[in-house]
C-alpha cells in the first residue's frame, strides 16, 4: 500500500469554508485537485465520453456545498467518487456497443515505450475495470492511499483486493495482446485467427490473443520483457489539464449552480446563495442542524429503548410475522388508505406498515427533516419541506412496486424503466437492463425498523446489508450492532410529496 501522497491534503477549515459558500476556498480546492481529477477521469473515460462535462459537473457539486460529504477529512475520496459516478453516467449515456466501448482501431505501439503500451492497454478493459484501474494507477504512483481508493469506490478491503487482482490480470493480458499484435514478423496462425476481427479492442479478443500468446511457440516470448504493472506505474506523473479547460472549470467555481441542470439539490444551492451574503449563516446552520438532529435522535432512542431490547438486529433473508406484515401490499386487509400531505405540519403523514406500494417518500428516523431523494442519479438523504421547489419534491418521491426479484419485497421506481439500485454498495438510479443481477440489485425486503412505525430495507442479494444513510448519501451497509446504525438505517414510509 502506498503511504506517500504527493497531492497536498486540504485543510479541514478550507473544506468547511467551501461548504459554506466561500468562493475563494472552492477555487483553491478545485485548482489544487484538478490534475488529480483530470488524470483519474482521462485514464478511465471511454472514447465517447465528454471529459470536460464530467469534470464540470463534479466541480459544480463542489461549488454547491458538496452534498454527500459528511466529514471534511474525506474530501478527496468524495471528490474522486463523485467524478467516477458522473463518469459512469456519461458512459451509460454514450450507449457503448460492446463491453470495451467503440474505440478506434488498434495501431502498432513502439515496444520500447512500455508506459505508452500501458496507456493503450486500458482501452481493452470494460468501463468498471478502467475506473478501478485508474484509481489503482494513482495509488501506485503515490497520489492516493489505499484507504482513499476504498472510500472513493465504496469497496471493502477484501472486495477491493480481489477486484484489483482480477483487473491487474486483465491489464497484463491486454499489454500482452498489444505486444503480440505489434510484433514483427507477424505470426501466421494469429493472422488467421483474427482474420474477421475489425481491429477494435474487445474483451473477447483480449482473451483470445492472450491465450494464443501463451500457447504459440512463436509468440510466447514476445512479452517476456514487460515490466510488472505495479512497478511500471510507480512515479507516473499526473496529467495536466489543458489551460482552457482549467480556466473554464475555475470560472464555474464562481457560478451558483442552477437547480434545473441537475448539478445539485435546490436546498444546497439556496444555502450557497445565503452564505455568499452572510458568511456566518453556514456555520450557524450547521450547529443548529446537528444539535436538532442529535436531540431528536436521543429522544427517539430513549423512547423506544425498551421496545427494542427484545428485538434482535435482523440478519439474513427470513420471514417473520412482523416482516411479513411490513411486506403486505397496500390492498391487503391490514393496510390503511394512503395519506396525503398534512396541512397542519406541511409534511407527509406516516403510513401503516402495509402501505408499501404506490407513490411514497422515505423519511429518515435519525434525521426527520431529511428524505431520500435523487440528485444527479445518485441517492442522497437531504432536507425537504412543503415549500421546496416541485423538482426537489419530485426527486424525493418514489413509486414502490413489487420487487423485481421477489414479490414479497419492494423495488423503488424513479421513472418508467428506471430504478434505485446498489452499485459498489452506493445507491443510484439505473435503467432496467433486464438482467438477473439488476433485478436483485433493485430489490429490498422490508424489515422492522428502529421504531415501531419504521421500516428497514434489506438487500436481497446482500442479505447482511441494509439501506443506510452514510453522511448525506444512501448506501447498503452491514449493521454494526449500535443504536445509531439502527436509526440511520430506518425510515418512515410516508405519502409522496407530489
Q: Which range does the strand content fall in?
A: 5-15%
**Strand order across the largest sheet:** 7-6-5-4-1-12
The secondary-structure class comes to: alpha+beta
Per DSSP, the total helix count is 19
Unreliably modeled segments: 1-6, 257-346, 349-353
Number of strands: 12
Helix content: 40-55%
Shape call: globular
Question: What's the short version?
Answer:
Helices cover 43% and strands 13% of the residues.
Molecular structure report:
The chain has 19 helices and twelve strands. It has a six-stranded antiparallel sheet. Strands 2-3 form a two-stranded antiparallel ribbon. The chain is an alpha+beta fold. 43% of the residues lie in helices and 13% in strands. The protein has helices at residues 12-19, 23-44, 51-63, 75-93, 114-121, 127-140, 146-153, 157-181, 188-193, 203-215, 229-232, 243-252, 266-277, 279-303, 305-309, 321-326, 390-395, 436-441, 483-488; strands at 358-364, 370-375, 378-383, 398-402, 410-415, 418-423, 426-431, 444-448, 455-459, 466-470, 473-477, 491-495. Helix 2 (23-44) crosses helix 6 (127-140), helix 3 (51-63) runs parallel beside helix 12 and helix 5 (114-121) crosses helix 8 (157-181). It starts with 11 loop residues before the first helix and ends with a strand.
